[in-house]
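Appendix B, record 7
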Amino acid sequence: MSAVELKGWEGSFPAGLLSPSDIMMLRNVRSFVEAEVLPRRRDLEASTRSGGRDYEDMLARMVPLGLQGCTLPEERGGGGVSSALTLAALAEELGRGDASLGWAALCGEAALRPAVRAGNVEVLERLAPPLCGDAPFTGALALFEESGCSGLEESGQWYPALGTRAAPADGRWELNGRKDRVTNSMRAGFFCVAAAAEEGEGEGGIGLFYLIPPLEGLAGAGERDMGGLRGAQLGDIELKGVRVPSAFRAAGPEEDTALLEDAQALARLLAAALAVGAGLGALHEALEFSAERPAAGKPIRQHSVCAAILADAASSLQAARDCYASAAAFLDRNTAEDAPGHQALARASLAKLFCCRAAVEATNRCMELMGSYGYVSDYHIEKYWRDAKLLQLMEGGTYAARLDGARWLYPFDPLFPNPLYEEMAGEGA
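Structure tokens (predicted):
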């Protein structure tokens, strides 16, 4: 690393916001990113195009960091990390190294969260040994279905968009359907799958089910060739007559809907923090480049125009960090009385909207500062841009986030009754 340094979470979060144990974990992750990830970033992504398993190797190297199953309760051998802010700060550190790796490593915590929040003993007992073991064991939150467009990631349209169905069968649940763009699709040790349970309709009929491979009827349906986050292994899975124990449902009617909102809020928060990390990585590249590139007898960052560009990028990224930290604090204090789940989801959605936009714009500015050097693979900045852009498009994209934000302001409903439509339909008849 060069002498150029960025201010990280230590000087950017108020004192006391992170516990001593959180800070120790963050420092360990930062050291790992500096020593292991940054020197291999180009080789890591190249391996996804050559059939290599470099990301699997890196995930194995990360096991001693304690990120795997870190949200598992301490009495079950986990780290007992319950703070969304801690997870977000970890995501930022990993995003600065490689957002693909960060998303692959941490999305399992969002998938595990419903079982932890519900206190599902059967699921936790089954998952605790591999999560606390010495081998990599990743998870996945399987929500999206292409047939439902982005409805699975827009909180007001979950049930109508669900094509995956769950039906009671001989004391078990039988699932049929397909999930698309699932993280860790071919390597996940467990999936948390959203399905429409036949016991009810509307949001109360949503079920969250834990699938632990190998399972008859559960199969991969191909990996997507994505422009960014290639190491996160976004792909599709098919479910044909997959049967799971009844106890492997996260909680039950109504409760699963609240747990889904909560898990999706955490997933969007992690995406926001990963994007900030990617933006900071791009800023670091631009700072190093502008320190070494001379113009008119001095480094270009000593010219006022370049200094202003760097300051603009830094200010937007710091504002983005403040934004996700505030949303994380809101999620950490999410109780039925003080902060209903849809409010926490709205806050996380707005944070993702702001943070991803800030990261993409900051990376754009840094690219422009570096000129043609900004988009060649000799520098990491073009990958930071691709990863930040895909994070912006994930989890429902920008418009689903906006609609969830609107629901925070007023009872927005795209299916709001419209007498005019009914009148026009009657005239047509």
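Remarks on this record: The two ends are 72 Å apart (CA to CA). The beta strands are 138-142, 165-169, 172-182, 188-197, 206-211, 218-223, 235-245, 294-295, 298-299.
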